[in-house]
Amino acid sequence: MLAAQRRAGIVSLLDVSGAVSVTELAAHFGVSDMTIRRDLDNLAAHGLIAKVHGGAVAPADAAAGSSARRSEEPGFPVKSAQRQAEKEAIAAAAVQLVQPGMSIGLSAGTTTWALAHRLLGIGELTVVTNSPRIAEIFHRSAEQARVGGEAPEQTAAGSAPADQTVILTGGVRTPSDALVGPIANQALRSLHLDLIFLGAHGFALEAGFTTPNLEEAETNRTWLQTSPRAVVLADHSKWNATALGTFAELAQIHTLITDTGLDDAAADALREQLEALILAEPTETRSPR
Prior knowledge:
Layout: H1 3-17, E1 19-21, H2 22-29, H3 33-45, E2 50-52, E3 55-57, H4 76-80, H5 84-94, E4 103-106, H6 110-118, E5 125-129, H7 132-147, E6 164-168, E7 172-173, E8 179-180, H8 182-189, E9 195-199, E10 202-204, E11 208-211, H9 214-223, E12 230-233, E13 245-248, E14 255-259, H10 264-271, E15 276-280
Parallel strand pairs: 4-5, 4-9, 5-6, 9-12, 12-14, 14-15
Antiparallel strand pairs: 1-3, 2-3, 7-8, 10-11, 11-13
């Protein structure tokens, strides 16, 4: 178990019981007391727990005063209205990585949703997603083209929809409209994709890429098994935001595409951990689709 996964488990136990001891945690995770104490020091430093003699308790406000934030997960409509210019710039950079005939994966998320609109004109794609909203983009565009009535949805570049295969996993729906859980994971484990694009609630040097939903974190870890190339799409506001569950260490991700709002020091630190960092330049804010 990765340290970040163990720490997410500690927070989860605290959410249930309200208090845990070092001895209990060491037995539960099969590690030493010293390892647990280091975990508690880390979690306390991020404002996720409050240390007490011999253990830890859940703080009244876990995020208060911390440079890294543990956040609740807002719904899709709320997130889709935030940072639209940044998301469109990131999507425009991401689509450059996709070639006709590829098999790609798109996890649920508002930035991957923005990318999906730009993929409509790329031919012979196979697109796997655990997002009903993303699947609907391709379905609606294909239906419009087939009936010949309303003009088909266009990509940002103005291309017409292309011949594509879209596979939607099953699963349990989260507040962010991701399908997660054993059914989604089982479907993903049998796939071999050229490239996957993942959203993230936050990213940080130590915590890596995180999400507030533990089942979504597990499904995102399963996504990583489907392809040797993983690309995370996350705007700069998610830097140093730490949610409950880590789904990837920085070094597990091939490319991070964020925007030029990321400060230079953060960019330099990330380049030391990632194979590639792309900084997209936002332009004007686009109207919601």
